[in-house]
Amino acid sequence: MDEMLAAIVENARPRHGNGAVATYIPELGKARADALGIAIVTVEGDSYDAGDSDYPFSIQSISKLVSLALALTELGEEQVFSRVGVDPTPDPFNSIMRLEMDRINRPYNPLVNAGAIAVISFLPYRESAARTSAVLDLARKLTGNNALAVNEAIYLSERTTSDRNRALAYFMRSTSILDGDVEDVLDTYFRQCSIEATVKDLAIMGATLAAGGINPVSGERVLSSRVCRVVRALMATCGMYDGSGEFAIRVGIPAKSGVGGGILAVVPRRMGIAVCGPALDAKGNSICGMQVLEELSREMRLRVL
Ligand code: GLU
Questions:
Q1: pTM for the complete prediction?
Q2: Whose CA is nearest to atom 2 of ligand 1?
Q3: 2-60+195-298: which CATH topology?
Q4: Active-site residue, selected from the candidate residues 53, 58, 61, 67
């Protein structure tokens, strides 16, 4: 298995030249464009990895799964989805356009920036410190890594350059979607995006989502099976942004990408798979990561969609 994974990684690695590392958050520009790693953890707790599987990267939008799972657990589906939709959008991840168009007030889904920022504002914590520590605590349980932490340099870099997310958030407050203090809500968003992890950590998170909420390594029940089902469904339909349909055809597994180059894929009742390759395509998805997942899905017959 490890040999097959190593071959798939080395086959995909040269493709990094077709993509580019994200630089709109300046600190992300320091990532190694040719890094590529994969880790798999099964629902039985067996693990495999290859390539740069110890390479640390910020999980970026993969963190949206964690804050969404927290909101669903603490508030329930009714409260969350009455204010944020559950449908895919053809627009880029940070688009502002539709907030004022056909679906007045409601961001399309919780996995685009607007939806994720809104969901964070619903969390029942008074300020960012408490909110962030609740998100981090859940991320630690999902990965089983108690040392998981925010990369301060990436957090500061995003906080000082994120006019786009500020625009989204202030707009949503003007239409009463977002609750509370905009800068405080954004602080949690920037911090959770800057959580640093390896593919080995994220594969355990994926295995926990695949197993219906029980972390197969620690044995702890972290989420309800219903919350996992909702999160997996949104990954399948919205997790790869406006590339979600193409990814469903090519790979056929629920997945969520981040602009740090990570992709977390979940094969229900079988395994979690995490890949990281910081060179991105035009939609913000890891070029090599998608290639690795496509080959692996074909080799191991993982397709569920
Ligand atoms: N922190 C990033 C942003 O808001 C997350 C985007 C992503 O990973 O797709 O721009």
A1: 0.97
A2: 60
A3: Beta-lactamase (3.40.710)
A4: 61
Tens-place pLDDT, residues 37-78: 999 999 999 999 999 999 999 999 999 999 999 999 999 999
Catalytic member of 108, 125, 155, 241: 241
- Which residue puts its alpha carbon closest to atom 10 of ligand 1? 94
pLDDT digits (tens, 9 = 90+) for 74-114: 999 999 999 999 988 888 888 887 777 765 578 999 999 99
- To the query of whether residue 241 is one of the catalytic residues in this protein, the response is yes
Fold of 63-193: Beta-lactamase (3.40.710)
User: Is 61 a known active-site residue?
Assistant: yes
133 in active site: no
End-to-end Cα separation, the chain, in angstroms: 24
Longest dimension (CA), the chain: 54
Sequence spans of domains, the chain: 2-60+195-298, 63-193
**Alpha carbons 24 and 216: distance in angstroms, whole number:** 37
Tell me the two tokens of residue 243: 């590339």
State the distance from the centre of ligand 1 to the C-alpha of 163, rounded, in angstroms: 12
Alpha-carbon dihedral sign for residues 50, 28, 111, 181: positive
Close Cβ partners of 6 (under 8 Å, ≥ 6 residues apart): 50, 51
> Any residues with Cβ below 6 Å from ligand 1, and which?
60-61, 93-94, 113, 158, 165, 193, 258-259, 284
